[in-house]
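Is this the right way to post structure tokens for a design question? Let me know if I should format differently. Anyway, here goes:
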């Protein structure tokens, strides 16, 4: 009983300290949406296809967006702007499976509360799935999502043959509180708003 009371008090303090913006720990699907929507980049891990590293995990940083900034802008879909010239994209051409990690450590939230990036209260989300090119009907949405947060992308060299892609989520793990990872299904994830 004392543990449950402590959990409720801690959740309430988190909500008050953040101005009510961060979801409480018992709402893992909302937390996953919240963290993704508030992050502008993530660590994408692929299985390397490069000589000397073939089959080894390889993590790289990518700018991403699930929609324009603001409380109503997030779709939950992580969009990326990619080129075949990039080493991780070359890995994805051989095996499109990947994992993507995003963390509130990249926002002011964790520093404000003096949370180390490894502290569970500095929430991070791990997505597993695959990277797929978006179709023509989704390209406008991906472009708006990415260019609204990363305006520099519009001026990147055209001869690099950039294309819009999305992370097709199959599994989600949330670490936002003590006690281990929480599993969220894609259905639960997409059914809530951040």
């Amino acid at each position: 009983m004392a543990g449950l009371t402590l959990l409720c008090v801690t959740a309430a303090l988190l909500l008050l300290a953040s101005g009510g913006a961060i979801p409480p720990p018992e709402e893992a699907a909302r937390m996953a949406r919240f963290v993704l929507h508030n992050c502008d980049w993530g660590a994408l891990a692929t299985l390397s296809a490069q000589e000397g590293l073939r089959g080894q995990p390889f993590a790289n940083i990518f700018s991403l967006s699930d929609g324009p900034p603001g409380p109503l802008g997030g779709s939950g879909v992580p969009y990326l702007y990619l080129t075949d010239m990039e080493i991780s994209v070359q890995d994805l051409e051989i095996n499109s499976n990947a994992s993507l990690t995003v963390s509130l450590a990249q926002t002011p939230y964790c520093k404000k509360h003096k949370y180390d990036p490894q502290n569970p209260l500095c929430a991070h989300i791990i997505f597993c799935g695959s990277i797929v090119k978006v179709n023509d009907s989704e390209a406008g949405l991906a472009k708006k999502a990415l260019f609204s947060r990363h305006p520099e992308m519009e001026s990147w060299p055209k001869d690099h043959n950039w294309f819009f892609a999305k992370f097709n989520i199959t599994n989600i793990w949330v670490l936002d509180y003590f006690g281990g990872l929480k599993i969220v299904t894609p259905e639960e994830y997409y059914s809530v708003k951040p």
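Format looks fine. Someone answered above. Worth noting: The chain has one domain: 28-191. The beta strands are 41-47, 57-63, 79-82, 97-103, 124-133, 163-175, 182-184.
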